[in-house]
Structures are given as C-alpha cells and as structure tokens.
## 1
Amino acid sequence: MAAKTNSDDTDSQFYLTADTFFPRNANTGLTFDDVTLATQFSQILPRDTVLDTRLAENLELHLPIISADMDTVTEHAMAIAMALKGGLGLVHYNMTEKQQLKEVSRVKNHVHGLIQEPITVTADLSVGDVLELIEEQRYTFSTFPVVDDAGNLTGLLSGSVVKPSYADRRVGDAAIPRASVHAVTEKELEPDPIRVADQFFTDHPGINKLLVVDDDNHLKGLFTLSDVERIALEKSAQFKPARDGEFRLLCGAAVSATRTQAGELDRERITAHVGALLERGVDATAHGHTQGVGDSVKLIRDAFPALPIIAGNVTSAAGVEYLADCGANSIKVGQGPGSICTTRIVAGVGIPQLTALYVAAKGAASKGVTLIADGGVTKSGDIVKALTLSHAVICGGLLAGCQESPGDIVEISGKRYKQYRGMGSLAAMKAGSAARYGHNAKDTTRKIAAEGVEALKEVSGSVDSVLTQLTGGIQSGLGYLGATNLAELHDKARYLRISAASQHESRPHDVIEVKAGN
C-alpha cells in the first residue's frame, strides 16, 4: 500500500490535472504539440469506448467531429457523409440563401425512412407524360403514388409499366387501383415507424413500397424497402448515423449576420431564412465570427427558442459567458489556429488552442453550455487532447481533400489536389459578398486585409475512410487513459508539457518513411 501511495504521489507531481497544469503555465500559450497526455490504468478496450456527445438538449452526435462551415469543405455531400458516420456537417453560407436551403434539403431527404412528400402523379396524365417528367427532373425512380386533386390516394403507378411501349396509356388505366395498394395509417406506425415498416416488408416479400395515409386516405408519405433495410442495419453498427426524431440525417447550417444598407441587422431577412431552414429540418445553426454575433444570437434565440445555436469564435471565459447569455447552446473556441487562417499574423490576435480551450471551459462550466474546438487539428491525437477540454471538434483541413468536399480538383506533377481556402481569404470574401449581399464579385472595398489564404490539399479519398482512421485514433486515446466515454476523458486527463526534442521524439524519426500513418 505504501509503495502504491508513493507512486501515486510521484505521478501526481509530474502528470497534472487541467486545473493544476494550465494555471501553472499561465504565462505561456500552449497548443496541441506542446502537451502530451499521461496514460492511466485501464481496463477499457478501444473498441468498447463510446464517443457520443450532446451539444444541446436536442442535438446529440455519435461521433464528436463536425465538418467546418467553409465553402471548400461542407456542402450537401460532405454533410451527408458526416451524418452517416455519426457526426455533423455545417453547410456554409457563401452561396445564395435559396441554394443553401437546397443543400440542407438534400441532406435531410437523403436515405431516410419515411419520405414525407413523395413525388406523385395524377390519373389524367399519360405514361408518356410521366416519362418526360422523369427525364426533365432526372429522377432515379419510376414508381409513383397516384393522387387526385385533393391529395387522396387513388392508386400506385408501378415502374414496370412506365415504359415507352405504354406511353399512350393513361395513368389511371395503367396504375394499380387503390383497393390493391398496400398502405398503413399514420397511427399504425406508432411508436416505431421503422420497425413497423421493416416487419411489413418481411411479411410481404416482393413488395418494395409501403404508402402511408391519414384516416381520410390523404397520402402522407411512403417507405421504400432499400431505405428501411439500410436503417435496420444501422442498429448493429458501432457508430450509428446521426439522425433526428424523424429518422432523417442531422444537418447544420451557418448563418451570417446580414445587415441593411444603414448598418443595422436585417432582422426580417435573418429570421425568414432561419425559419426556412427549420422548415427543411435543419438541426442547428452556426453563427460566424462577426461584430454583431451577440445581437444575431439574441435575435435567432428570441425567434426560435428550441433551435440549437452554435456561436463563436472566442478564446476567453468572458466571451463564452457573453454568448451563452445571448442564447447560444454551444460555443466555438479558436481564433487563428487553422492551417489556412492568418488572423494571428494579420491582426496580431489569437490564443494557442489548448490554453484557449481551458480558459473557455471555465466560462462554459459556469453557464452550462458546451464547447467545440475549432481549428488547429491535424491528427487524431490532437482531437483526443481537444476533447479533454471540449465536447466536439470542428475539422476543415483534415476533410478538405476528401472526394465529398466541394473544392475544385487540380493536378500538379501527377498528383491530384483539391482547392482549400480560408473563409477570410479574399476569394472567399468576394464569393460571400456576391452571393449573400448582392454585391459585385469585383467589390474589394468591404474588407482590406484578408485573414486567410488560398491553398491546396492532396486528395485523400472518402470521408468514410478518413473518419474511420480518426475514430480509431480517438478510441485508442480513450483506451490509454482508461476512459469509457468523453465525460471520463475529461476527468482522467493528465497533462505534461514537452520540449521541442520531445516533439521530435513523438514522430517517426531516424527512418525512411515509406508509408504515412494516421
């Protein structure tokens, strides 16, 4: 017992808790590579760790990784891929409001259980009309519910008859009549719609569509066999997709502090756009780093009391408390740590990321809000360190080379790269001015000094493969610290400041590296 006590005392002298370590290093700003985490006694296998995180009362992720709201990182393809792996994508706002609504809709309507507004046809059309509709809209399906002018279900047009040889036939004559169409009422789906639909398809082999009606036979939606099968398989997956209460993928959207020509917040425009995003099922809004961030958060909170709001960026406890008081649920921490951000060089401001996270965490604890580490992450070990003080991380550069990112691809000396730029770069600001505020793209008077650069990231494959690697690293980190989940990671983290030589020692050295690791 004495030996154990002595060893514990020795460890505690060197490997310090956050509340001891950071105040002791208060005169030096520290970032990820300045610090290492001490291992702890562990009975936890990495595969048994749980990475669920709750950012707000109604915003829970199964993977604490969020793709950045940057115009070379997150549009619908990235947001879909992130949600399918349990994370969250924040659709950027360097586009028109109409286009952002479309991007969010594409995420929310991607492979979900109940298609609530299925494409329908009417009995008076011809099969030829339906074929033209499919070609014009580029639909990838050919089976349609048939409804009358009042929205009542009258039949089902099967894809087997939607062929050129039947072009002259009326839909009403070619469709399966209502009496022969399988349908359930909304009440019959309660309390688990996916379980009911899955059981129906099991009991009726060969049928791949299930229509949903109300008590008055108005069409309310449909299930497809392929969608239900995919969702059923998720139950056995270690990291389940992030879905809302209606089994749709989670999606966030960035919102700008639009101003009138007089310089005032354009309250009507902001609330109208956020309201339209909510109608399309958006699960969170992220507010960028602007002068009116507090006023914007208050405006959105007053108009939409239940909407999760992510706001930032800050690097102080006071900043966190202010945004929390304004109504934000989760606060982004980070000013200048990103690989394409030049804020610290141009403006001379910004705090190294780990120190900023610790200071911000004190404010978050006092207000009961969550923190998101935004920027500076280059590897899975950085994510583990960030999660000791936060609840999730935002990644930009790590995901910018993925095939799902919207950046343009260029080839240089046989290697393929994707465009990646900071949202404070001149090109991004010009794009934002033209798309969001109606300014000409050549208008360079809005902001003189750029705080970001334009760069290239080597193409890195799919989001699935990148997140699999990052997830494995995070789980290993929790395993080494004996932490089952992120809450235990917060409690068990012990820090040690390391030297430049130690940083060199931490990486592959004295070898010729033939294949890069994580």
## 2
Amino acid sequence: MSAEQLQHSIFVSPKCVKNTKFNRQYKCDKGSNNDSEVYASITPKIHQGIWPNFCLKHLQDDPEGCSAWSEDSSESLQLDFLIEGHSEAQIDRELIERLRHLSHLIPQRKQGDNRYCDYAYCPNCSQTVIRGISYYEDEDEDEEGNDFYSYIYFPVYKCGCTGQWWLDVDELWNEECDIYEGWQFCYAPTIYHGYFDWHHQTYFHHSQNFLLYQKENPSCSCYWPQSDSCAKEVSDYAYTKLTQAFETSNLDTARSTFTPYLSERSLHGFLSGLLTHTFFYSQYRDILFDLDQHSFKELSANDYPLVHNQLIDVEESIQGPFLKLYNQCLQQHPHPKIYYERGMVLFHRGDTLDSLEDIRKFIAYAEKNHYHDMLTSDLYLKEGRLLGESLSYDEAIVALTKAIEKDSMNKDAYFERAIAYFETGDFSKALSNYLASGIHPKKIDPKKVGGFNSITFGQGVALGILKGGQDSVTEFVPSLLSCLRGISRGIWTFVSSPIEVSQEMVDCTNACLEFIKENITKEMLCKLVPEL
C-alpha cells in the first residue's frame, strides 16, 4: 500500500477495539523541543493544547477515531465528553457533516509539531489506534512556602494489541516496541480539530457564515489566526483581555451556566470554545454581548457594573486592530462583506457618517450584483438607524420600509420607522408604526426607584445633556437636541404608550427644560435648542 493510499484508507472504527485494562502509561514521541517552540510561536492561543491534530480526510471519515477515549468503572471503552481540563476533544460527526461542503477552505497547518496527522492504524489487530487523556498530580510550593497542587495532562495511546495505555515509547519493552513500530501513521497536513469539537458548537454558526465568505472571496486569508499574523494578534489580544476579565471579577462565577457545552471546561477551554469560530468584529461583538446579558442575569447589582465595563473595554480595544485589518483587506481583495464589517466598527466607534458610507457601499454592491440573500431585513434596519442618527429621516423611512418588505415581522424596523415619521411630523403614521411594532416599554415604578421625584429626575437628565453640550456643542447638537423633536427618541423609549404618556414623564420633561433655561446662558441655549 502506498503512502497516499494509507493516508486516505478507511480504517476500522475504534468502537470495535477490545476492552483493555488501564495499566502502565507510555507516551508516543511527538517531536523535538524546537518543533514545540515553533508551534507555540505561530499557533493562536485559542488553538493551543496537547490534543493532536488530524487531516481533514480522517476527521471526516472517522471522527470517533480522532476523539478522546477513556474507560469507565467496568473498564469498558467510551468516548469521554466532559473531562475537566482543556485538551480533550470530542469530534462531532454532525458538525463534520454540516461543514463538509466548505471544510476544504480551512487552511492546513504548515509549521510546528502538530502539522502532521496523528491518525494511526495497527495492522496487527486491524484496528485504529485510539487516544485518551491522562494526568498526574504535581505538588509544589509557592513563594510563601505553602503547598499547592497542579495537574499535568498528556495524551495516551492504545490499540487492540496492547494491554495498557502507552505514554513514552522510549520505555517500551521489546514486544511492545514491535507493536508500536508496526503502527502506520498518516502524516498528511493537518487542520485544527477544534472547528468540529462538540464542546465548541455554541458559536458554530459563525464558522459557517465565515466559510461562505471564504467561498466568495477565496483569495482572502486575512482572518485566519493560524495563517495571518494580524488576525492572530487580534485573537490573542481578545483571549488575553477576556482572561484578565474572568480572573479579576466575578464574571468567572457565571461561566458554568453560560452554555452546557462548556460548563465543565477550564478557563482556557471555555475561552477556546467561545473564540474558535470567531473571525469578524461583528462575531466578537455577538459573544461579548451574550456574556454581558448573561452576567446581567446571573450577577448581583454590585458585581455586574465591573463586568459590564470590562466587556466594553474588550470590545473597544479590538476596534482599532480590526479597522487596520479591514483597511488592508479592502485594498488587497475588496468584498462587500468587509465594507459592512468596517461600517459596524465605525458605527460603534461613533463615526456615524463614515459607517453609513460603508454600509451603503455594501448595499449598492449587493443590489447591483443581485446578491439578494445579502440584502436582509436587518441590513436595511441598520441603514435606517444610521440615517436616523444622521437626521436624514426621509431616507431612513425608505430604508426601513425595505426592511419591513424583507421581513414583515421585524418589530425593530416598525419602531425605528415610527421614530422617523415622528421626526418628520407625520404623527398618524408614527402612531400606526409604533402600534405595529408591538413594543411596549414599561412605566417607571416609583416603588422600585425609591421615591420617584420628577424634578430631581429632570435635573439629572438636564445635567447629562449639559455635560454633553459642554464637551462639544458641534458634535452634541445633531445627536440629541438639534430641535425640540430631538427629544422624541427618549419619549418613545421611556413611556408606556404614545397615546397615554405617563404624567411622570411629562413632569420630567418640563422640569428638564426649566432647569436648562435657568442654568445656562441665552447664547448656549439658542445653540442647543434654536426653537426656544
């Protein structure tokens, strides 16, 4: 059998391996120290671990043979789904099938000791060599002389011929050495197995969407952290910042309930599971938003603000690197998806006009080239919101109407169009769109705010407005108070219904305006609110 035939032969499933007794442990030699250093230097932090990688062919043909095995109390072999630690793997056949038509786009590993497929076959017993995770407890002392224990994890190997798991082939006896030397390894180029790991499936749809982009723009490799240095830098930075956030706040206490697939993982395993399928800024933002919402539900009112600010800091810290990455990508191999992504970064940085320009480029490209699947209701909703932020309400209405035509159940589009109609003075359409949105914000409950005082609340709102005006009148006016109707967004957000505006909100608005009139100069007042 040739080497090529060996690499792609269909081996017997490890489910057929006979039950064997866990005994002495040996390790197969995995390469030189130099290879390990190269691996660490070029491998993204989220990909680092002790589990070997495999070629795409064997991941697809025998996912169980590329997974971690163990033995239960009756010494029966089983796939081990949830071992505490970060290096075990459960390659999921369903995930393999869902990406089968796109998996060839995943780049192969070209350096380091994980660049060769570790899949092996034993011709003596006609079985696949299986792998498991073992560990030993290491005792040490800290600087203060206190004892502490750590666990060292490592892969172990077994085939149908062996009576034990093997750890180190240099210590094998003659008969065992003959068995090992008979194993036939694949040695084909590998891809990262984590894309198909059962534990990592929470954000699996991110990889699906990203690979569709790769199919449309095959010359682009800008966002693979294992092959592009800038993408690796962003991935490692996000990983490091999130690690710090988990270690310095109570965010870690909410980790076990975030997703069942990662509930038993170490912090490294948890973060790898979150970030493995993350390539674009919008995908990072989805994960950070989900973490924030989960923390809001799980943490106390005292603990949540710190976590919230840390997650905002992570998002803001990756915006600059992503802008650099997107600018380079658009120069080398432009694609409408990247205009959209850059537009999202600009929008969240507060660059509304530049963001709108990128979003409209994306829409124009998609409309011209008949990419109708790209022209989603949410896309037009984002355009409408940006136009509304730019005070282009008539154009916002056009974009939001397209969003509703794409999806008549898009409640946010109705709500945004209600605001746009309100700003143009078409109160009848504003009301009908508001009712169509089905959105009913709750009234302020005086009992929950500890004695509601409309004057105090109005003064607080006014102070916030003045602070923004003092920072920059030019930038502030278009965003909040270019006219009296600029308060409409606040009214429509806080009241329970535009038909029955609560008396508290009316009082607050009046108190707010009176406070402004009494505490700023006439010149500043005219700049902020010309109608007054």
## 3
Amino acid sequence: MRKFKVVSEFEPSGDQGQAIEKLSEGFLRGDKYQTLKGVTGSGKTFTMAKIIEKVQRPTLIISHNKTLSAQLYREFKSFFPNNAVEYFVSYYDYYQPEAYVPARDLYIEKDASINKEIDIMKMRATYSLMERRDVIVIATVSCIYGLGMPELYKSMRIHLECGKTLDTHKLALELTQIQYQRNDVAMDRGNFRIRGDIIEIYPPYMEFDEAYRIELEWDEIARIKRFNVISGAITEELDETVIYPAKNFVIPQEELFAATERIQNELKDRLDELNAQKKFFEAERLKTRVTYDIEMMKEMGYCTGIENYSAPIAARKPGEPPATLLHYFPDDFLCMIDEAHVSVPQIGAMYEGDRSRKQNLVDFGFRLPSALDNRPLKFDEFSKMLNQVIYVTATPRKEEIKQSTQVVEQLIRPTGLLDPVVEVRPSEGQMEDIYREIQERIERKERCLLLTLTKKMAEDLTDYLTGLSLKVKYIHSEIDTFERVEILKSLRAGEIDILIGINLLREGIDLPEVSFIAILDADKIGFLRSTTSLVQIIGRAARNENGKVVMYADHMSDAMKEAIEETKHRREVQEAYNKAHGITPHTIKKAVQDILEREAKDAQENAATELEVLKKSANLFNKEQRNKLLKALRKEMEECADRLEYEQAAAIRDQIKEIEAQFGK
C-alpha cells in the first residue's frame, strides 16, 4: 500500500508539534472523539495533514460549504501529491427539489442542472475508496445523502486479464448493465466502442482523460493498454484491470424485477389506505404516476426520480438509513470535521428539512411512503457510521467539548502575534469614548471596526461619524455584492478608517490593519452576541500588535465573561511562548497592496479550483450553455459575499467578466 506522505518545505512550528503528537496518539489508542482547538492563523490545515501522515488511515474531511471545500481540496492536493485526494460535493449547478404546497394546490416538479465534471469527481472518490487506502476525500454535507450501495457497486465490476478468454457480445451486455453506453464513433466518459478485435472503454472516474484499450487475438485478451483519449498516446501496459460501473446507482437486472414487485405491493397497500380515507383523487394520481415508473424501470432499467424508489430497490425496511459515501470507507477510517461549530449543526439539520418537504408529497398522492427513506442520514445514524472523529475549530461548542476525550489547543501563531486586549466599558458615553479611540488609531494609520446589532443602527452611526468628518462606511446584507467587495478593500487601502457592520465575525477574514474593535450592546442575548460570535469578533483584531477590543455594556453577560476568559487564556499562553523563545510580535509591515495581491491570488486559486469543473462542463460558444454557466457563477458569487468571503466573490466576478469579454454576454 502506498503510504501518506506530506510534501512541504515547512516543518511543524509553534505548538503544532504537540497538537500533532497528542491527537495522533489519541487516535491510535482508540479515542472516538477529539477536538483540535486552533486559533486563526495557527496553521490548522497543516496540522491536519501531518496527523493523516502519522496515523496512515483513509480520511474523510467534512466542510460546511463548497468554497471552503475547494480551498481544502487545493491545499491537501499540494500536501499529498502522491496520494489520492478527492472532492465530493453536490453536483447540482441549480437544484429545485420536488415539492407540493397544499395551501395553493401547487405542485413543483424537480428541476436540476447536473454538473458533469463534479459528478465525475464524485465517481472518482468512490472508485478510489474501492481500489486503495491512501485516500483523502474532501466533502460537504453531500456525504450524508443517499448513494448507490457499495456492495452492488463492487460486485458488478468487470475484471479483465491478459490470457483470459473474452466474449465481446457478453462484455458489451455487461458494460450496458453497469450503465456504460456504446458509441462506436466518439469516445466520451461512460462510453465504450468495439472495432473488430479492439475494445475501448472510457470509465467516467479516470483522472487524466485516460481510457482502456483491450486487444484480442481470436477470443483471447492479448494486451490491455491505458491510453490518453485526446492524444492517443499509450501511458501504460497492464496485465489486468477492473472496470467499475459508470454510475454509483446500479442494480442487476434480476434484482430490478424483484424490486418492481416490492414497489407494486407497496402501491397496492397505499391505494387501499387512501381509498379507505376517501382520498380518491390522491389514489388515482399515485396509481398513474407509480404504474408509469414501474413500466419504465422494466423496459429501460431506469425512470425519472428513481432515487425515490431506492428503499424498495435496495430491499431496505421502513426507516432504515440509505447507503452514503460513509459506507464506502473502510471501518478504520478517520473523519475530520472542519469548522465543527458550524458543520456539525448543519449535518444535524439536514434530515428534518428533507422530511417535512417529502411528507406533503406522500400525503397528497405524489409519492409512495418509501420515498421518505430517500433521505440524508439522521444525526445519530451519521454518528454511528463514524469510526473516530477529530473536530477542528477555533470555537468548539459545549457539545464537542463534552464528547471529546481531549481538547488539544493550538494557540501559537508563527508570527508571534497575540490575541487582543479586551476591556468592558459602560454604554453611557460610549460615542465620546469610541471617538477618542478612533482618533488614536487614525494618528497611527490603523483601522477600526464597529459592531452593531441592527442595519438601522449601522446606518445611523455612519451618519453620526461622517458628521464628525471621519472617513467611514457601513456594510450589511442589503449592500450590493460588488460594493461589499470594494468597501472591504477600501478599508485595507486606507481610503476609509472605520467600517461599521453587524456580522463581521467569519473565521479567516484577514485585517492586519485593524487594531480597534468596538462591540456595541455586547451584553444583549442572541446569536450575534453569543460566546462563539464574541470570540470570533475578538479574533479580527489578532492580526495587529496593538489589537484592542472594547465591549460596551451595562452588565456582564455569561457570553461576555466566557469570551473574555478564553481570550485571556490564549493571550497568556502566547505571551509565555514568546518569552520562552525570545519572540517579539510585530504586525506584518507589508504594503497594503502586497497584502491585497496575496489574498486576491489565494482567492483566485480557490475560485479556480471550484470554477474549473463548472467551466469544463459547459460549451462557452453555445449561448444557452454560456448563460447557464454565468447564472451559476453569479449565484456562487452572491453566496460568497453573503458569507463575507469577499476575496472569493471578487475572483468569481473577474471570471464572469473574462467570460463575457471573450465569448459575449
């Protein structure tokens, strides 16, 4: 087996080494749950990579959105160039789920645009998990949704070996049964062709546009070659190979007929129920829809919405969980959940949202009750599937801490910078106090952030400070996407000195120029003033050696107390480390333009990773496909801006402009 090997010019520094050792030892002794509590800028991703190298186990890394997943995918690809690093996210550019709104008697058909390139990457992930152990899969919550059964996926593979007898007609039938299509003219992923004694098969999961060529002498396999589909160059000669199905959802013909019998029986029982309830219209609608689907499955082996019949097809009992990506991993795998304070609640929320939508479809005769079992995993089902877990977050929730046998801190930044000083001051006279603090920062050519609770307050405060001849702007969700990007850039470039916002707490916003943060109404109860939010806000001032955070409040809330104690603890550890190693923290003194260029480059690389698969799946010379791609890019750009990922949004905006300039709008 090929071993995991990190390729990097850097070695662990600060407290990365102890974090790697402790978490690796915990994993190897069998700890079910552990937490890596790492501050922003401490190199958590590098620590994760070194842990994987240490424990040598197949690894699933779950992130809560596509943008972060793309960033992690790019970073782990660079850390592990000789291992399989795969990307498993939703393959929909656009997705409107099937739904029924009883109040308006409105049925909404499922409407989706599948991105073929991402679908290929998902196929590659399951293929790699079947063939090797040195696999890292970067996934979103898509990993808890139904997928084809790994047992069938593996059992239906086709083994080819030199010297063995081969019947081409039988092979063609077997390839068709595992969802390959015959095309003797053009080679495309998921196709095969037969030309005399030469058979060419192009599996969809191959990474480098490679296919297999099987050469026969009479009825015997003489040679098996892997070749480049575009250039035709032979890349390798093989003694044997295995062809996996072209889709994850495959089923043998004999089992499909048995499945249609189960669907027919369920339909009969459900019709009896609906008729007994005098729901004759719903019963007739259900009978028409399901009977048509059964006929399609018998004739074509497939029907639209076949995933809604996944439970009877797999012979699962009502309530049994579906097969997911997690079922493809071996029993001893490692799961790392990045930004766990967001990702874990997101995983837990998926089931209920899906269930409520589908219940209406069942109640009103659009779907059989078994459609309810085409669903994401419940949280307890997800937890049971996990072998061992490492939560990775700067602000773990109480649930993660309680579960973990150890919480390992990683608090040292390579720059030596400390978490900021935190003070609490009364609300009375806060504006005069804030004005004095702002003037000090302006003299030192530093920047300020002011955090309010409402949009109205942000706008009023901006007007007030503008009246005092200060350079200030506000930012919130109603500001146009492009304008939000420009406002943040103008703060860094010094065109404005103060930025007023509501939710400027995303981990990873790099604002080294900001040395003062004022949190208004810090004692109010709610999400924006929770312990996690306050710790994240405080972290925004941790990039500057003069960082200070002032909470304006009338009393000390529990969240404030916990956030202050956490920041004080971090600062004490950081100061002790700096003293022991003779480090004097300094703000990065690069020119603002250098910082902007570096962050823009990082954002462009992240965007490129994600957008490459979008662009590959569209013919940009075709106006319809081009408009479809541009629509998907604009949606992604707006989502990035909503998450305050402004550099990423700007990079996508530039991609849109480039496509429009080159190919037209």
